[in-house]
Amino acid sequence: MSEENKNIKSNQLIFGKYEIYDNIGQGSFGKVYSGINIKTLESVAIKLEPKESDLGLLKSEALYLFMLNGVGIPKLHAFGKNNKYNILVETLLSKNLSKIFEEYNKKIPLKDSLMIAIQIIERLEYLHSKLLIHRDIKLENFLIGYDDPYIIYLIDFGFCQKYRSNRTGNHIKFSSTNIFIGTMFYGSINLLKGNQPSRRDDLESAAYTIIFLLKGSLPWESTKAKTKKELIKKIYRIKLSITPEELCKGLPNEIKEFYLYCRNLDFEQKPNYKYCYSLFNNALINNGFSNDLIFSWIKDPKILYKLKNKRQNIRCSSPTNRKSNPRERKH
């Protein structure tokens, strides 16, 4: 165990029952550690955010995790603070998609990528059903389950925002904020332009994420600039000028259709998630696959047996294969 981990551990037992093990990651809030509930022996992830942090992201994330509590969303075990940190304890997950991407030498199999795409849309549909937008969709924010590696989990809800009022039911008004929040690499054209985000921007970011998984690169990834403002402008111009045909060259035609659909959504429009599912399911079928959740990284014989023989009992939503009209009423 590192000296830093020893210092954290010797400070006190987290909430009297969570023991910290190893540093397993870094987030916009601070560091993530693996740990264990010493009373139940359940493995957990422990996020630590310095109390002096101006962002205060963990408090927001704890609130959103409590609100969401669905398939593919980490379970909130505890939230609180000690004399040094804001602390969040949640489900322990495995590798994020960025690490898996690197381990596969930037060539994740087509079947895996298409099944991942379906689950990305599932997570966004669920999140949006709770009147929230994520605002930072990217590979690093999708992790495979530790005990259920056939489920793709969405994480990091600190930047989430309500797009509709609980009280009035009204959608937020369109505006130009000129403030970019998220990751430029995957950010939508409207966000890079400085516009207020809505559901359409989560979908467009998902499109870039999926295209990157399938192609291994995006045209703007090597863009450099002296300032963040200049870099945003450069990436914005590239994304605006590239044609869907060029961006999706060599990919199943359904990917281009999905990208075009995301780009054409209006600010307040509810995405037609069933149509999006149908595109990726069709791409699977047209390439001789099915959405059986058997990802190439799953090696455990017990899990493979479960997937092959007990598909109906797997706790993972199953989008329909039926086609749906992409033109859905705005609400």
Strand order of the largest sheet: 1-2-3-5-4
Domain count: 2
Q: Judging from the principal axes of the Cα atoms, what is the shape?
A: globular
Enumerate the spans where pLDDT stays under 50 for 5 or more consecutive residues: 318-323
CATH class of the largest domain: Mainly Alpha
**Series of secondary-structure elements, N-terminal to C-terminal:** HEEEHEEEHHEEEEHHHHHHH
Query: What structural class do you assign from the helix and strand content?
Result: alpha+beta
Structural Rg = 20 Å
Roughly what is the average pLDDT, rounded to an integer? Answer: 90
What distinguishing features does this structure have?
3-stranded antiparallel beta sheet, 5-stranded antiparallel beta sheet, globular, Transferase(Phosphotransferase), domain 1, 331 residues, Phosphorylase Kinase, domain 1, 16% strand
Q: Summary?
A:
The chain has 331 residues and is an alpha+beta fold. It has helices at 3-11, 57-68, 97-103, 110-129, 189-193, 199-215, 228-241, 244-247, 253-263, 273-286, 301-309; strands spanning 18-26, 31-37, 43-50, 76-81, 85-91, 93-96, 132-133, 142-145, 152-154, 161-162.
SSE inventory with pairings:
Layout: H1 3-11, E1 18-26, E2 31-37, E3 43-50, H2 57-68, E4 76-81, E5 85-91, E6 93-96, H3 97-103, H4 110-129, E7 132-133, E8 142-145, E9 152-154, E10 161-162, H5 189-193, H6 199-215, H7 228-241, H8 244-247, H9 253-263, H10 273-286, H11 301-309
Antiparallel strand pairs: 1-2, 2-3, 3-5, 4-5, 6-8, 7-10, 8-9
Helix pairs in contact: 4-6, 4-10, 6-9, 9-10
